[in-house]
Design brief:
The protein has helices at 2-13, 28-37, 40-56, 60-80, 88-104, 111-132, 139-168, 172-191. It is mostly helical. The chain has one domain (47-191).
Length: 195
């Protein structure tokens, strides 16, 4: 329960993503790195993906986050190229809801479904990152920055799963399912504009 309390407090003090072109500085490696960690919706989805890979276990530990990173890069290229993608903000919020729901179901989510969900929603996250990159920015450095931050957030999710297993022992699966349900509620709050 201590983990869930700290997790909830951390989520509440993080600001919502500003996935709109031209808000704030957004150039180079550092700013590309800061974009995913600057928004609650991005943090929740990416940490959730890492935790989902950990919970499913086996090859999912790296395949689910890898699917997210690869498809997010594709979405980033689409956003940078100016390709239209409808409902980007809604897609990002829905990613938090769906990943939370997958966590609530525990390890029963098939690997292929988890990869498809992670990869499909990653396109929306990547599009938001790519669309926000200003023309003067180094696309390669900015892209590497947001991919590196994403991988670290996935690792944080897997680390949270490991720590929860060590701290909660036999109660870890139940705590993870509860955390997934909370994640879905946060996603719903983001989708409806409450957060």
């Amino acid at each position: 329960m201590r983990f869930l309390s700290v997790f909830t407090i951390a989520l509440l003090v993080t600001s919502a993503a500003e996935a709109h072109t031209g808000i704030g500085a957004a150039s180079g490696l550092a700013h590309g790195f800061l974009h995913p960690v600057g928004g609650l919706d991005h943090i929740l989805a990416m940490v959730g993906v890492g935790l989902l890979g950990f919970v499913i276990g086996g090859r999912a530990f790296w395949l689910v986050p890898a699917a997210f990173v690869v498809m997010m890069a594709l979405g980033g290229v689409l956003g940078l190229a100016g390709a239209g993608l409808p409902f980007v903000e809604a897609g990002i919020a829905l990613s938090v809801i769906v990943i939370g729901a997958a966590l609530a179901f525990g390890s029963g989510v098939p690997l292929a479904l988890a990869m498809a969900l992670a990869g499909g929603f990653a396109v929306f996250h990547g599009h938001a990152h790519g669309a926000e990159m200003p023309l003067a920015a180094s696309g390669l450095a900015y892209g590497f920055g947001f991919l590196a931050a994403t991988a670290l957030l996935h690792a944080a999710g897997a680390g949270a799963g490991y720590a929860l297993g060590k701290l909660a022992g036999a109660a870890a699966p139940r705590a993870t399912r509860l955390g997934g349900a909370m994640l879905s509620l946060f996603g719903l709050a983001i989708l409806t504009g409450v957060l």
